[in-house]
Design brief:
There is one protein chain. By secondary structure, this protein is an all-alpha fold. Helices cover 84% and strands 0% of the residues. The chain has ten helices and no strands. The two termini are 32 Å apart.
């Protein structure tokens, strides 16, 4: 990060204040004619600020998880690529350099290893640095296997083959679990985000013809916003539940 922890918290507080102010002004303009909703909005300002603050403060964790998922998608292909290179007689340094050029996300960490070695750091220490800073447990296991093989004099390709097979089996299990989750997710999506809003709006329109219920533009806007939030929530849920695998 480009900021110290203190600078990041200060920046987050300012951003939360600005965004909360903008949201309150926007929502206040929408519900200005409804005193009850306006009072609720005014009392909700501290809660809105806290929610926005924790959203911004968690952004580094979101970036870390995103980078972890990107690495895990490439780890199997990078591991197999490295095994093929080593068994073809390519030196470990050159094999690591080729991996850094061939893969986008995982290549960054191998590129850092090559850069440290070129700057005079021995390969073992460069691997230790990469192990410390990588957010992916799978990549950490691969690098540990390379480091252990170098320290013990074992064949690096054989050590990598074992760990890549373990990662592959684990990702296959994650895919099977995800496939079992899709059916209930799809059922809840159809019920809550498709059937319930459609029938609810239809029923509301029908009841408005028999009961003294006035459907104005504000109600339709609120319903549209709620449906949009539901759709976005299910989309986020599907995306977050999908395992980051490369098999």
């Amino acid at each position: 990060m480009l900021y110290s922890p203190e600078q990041f918290v200060k920046k987050t507080l300012l951003s939360s204040f600005y965004l909360t102010t903008g949201l309150v002004l926007l929502l206040g303009a929408i519900v200005a004619k409804i005193q009850f909703l306006l009072n609720i909005l005014l009392f909700s300002i501290p809660a809105i600020f806290i929610i926005v603050f924790f959203y911004f403060i968690k952004l580094p964790d979101v970036h870390i998880m995103r980078r972890k998922r990107e690495i895990n998608r490439e780890i199997i292909y990078a591991g197999r690529f490295l095994i093929v290179e080593l068994r073809s007689g390519v030196l470990l340094y050159d094999a690591l350099k080729n991996v850094s050029k061939s893969f986008t996300s995982i290549g960054k960490y191998f590129r850092d290893i090559i850069t440290n070695v070129d700057m005079g750091t021995n390969l073992e220490d460069a691997l230790v640095d990469a192990i410390e800073y990588t957010p992916s447990e799978d990549l950490r296991r691969v690098l540990w296997q390379i480091l252990n093989a170098l320290n013990t004099g074992a064949d690096v390709a054989d050590a990598l083959t074992a760990v890549v097979e373990q990662i592959t089996k684990r990702q296959e299990i994650e895919i099977s679990k995800y496939a079992k989750k899709l059916n209930p997710f799809a059922m809840f999506y159809m019920m809550i985000a498709v059937i319930l809003p459609s029938l609810g709006i239809t029923l509301l329109v029908v009841l408005s013809n028999f009961l003294p219920i006035q459907i104005d533009r504000l109600i339709l806007i609120v319903v549209a916003v709620v449906i949009g939030i539901l759709q976005l929530g299910f989309l986020t849920l599907f995306k977050a539940s999908r395992p980051a695998v490369g098999v």
